[in-house]
Amino acid sequence: MDVQQAIFDDIKRNSVIIIHRHQRPDPDAVGSQAGFAEILRQAFPMKQIYIVGKQVPGLAWLATMDDIDDDLFDDALILTLDTANEPRVDDQRWRRGPEVIKIDHHPDDEPYGDLQWVNDEASSTSEMIVDFANRFALAINESAARTLYAGIVGDTGRFLYSDTTPHTLRVTAQLMETGIDAVAINQMEDEMPVAVARLSAYLYENLTITDAGAAHVILSADTIKSYELGEAGTASLVPMPGKIDTVKTWAIFEEQDDHSYRVRLRSKGPVINGLARQHNGGGHPLASGAKAADAAEVASMIKELETLTAAK
Fold it and tell me: Is residue 275 packed enough to be buried (19+ CB in 10 Å), middle (13-18) or exposed (0-12)?
């Protein structure tokens, strides 16, 4: 089946389209969501097209979410973007929709929805949206290009990560040619609040690096709260251990209020998504997330990451 054609046919058939993304969004989640909505609004001005999810102040410069009534979901085509599994979809009203389409670039370990278009070789979901628009000759105006560019920049780590391909750069050039202020977008994504900068100093001071190049840091709930991050969160910290030349893999453990841990895993080479899957997570080969139930599981994951790194 030509899944992209099937998705386009569904879009043409439906008069109400609601676009979701994942919880705790990053620039690709919001950028692909808002960019796709703008493309579809330009192509189909008579349709009702909405973007939903929690409004995150740190990404308000990218897009504003729509506040819509529950009843609209009952007859809507639901699109979930950049969301690998059902529990992570932001705004659970998506389940009311009669048809759900998943568009994502993460490994399809947990399929859901009536149609799935998953390309885990794409740098980002934003890149996929540009490809979709190009295939069906849908115009990408400057407004859409701005958010899609932000999504690609975010998920490629400013084009540092291995998912950056020649195609990624061609797509990026296409977006820049619409007249967007790429420098301003880059600066917005590079900036961080003072509280996050101070926590980053704590991270470097408390980072443990093994001889094999496996690094980790444990951020207690009390430590995180003491920096009063507000809505800024800790996402900006994730790439920081990788800036150290001797670090090959790293894990950031963030204690939650129930004393479990959110785990962010990254790598410069050794594949770490298998480790993530063993601990209630998953993701890309070099960028994954997981969960640890308690301090004992944290200790186990640290040893496993060390073993995995030393083997390479």
Answer: buried
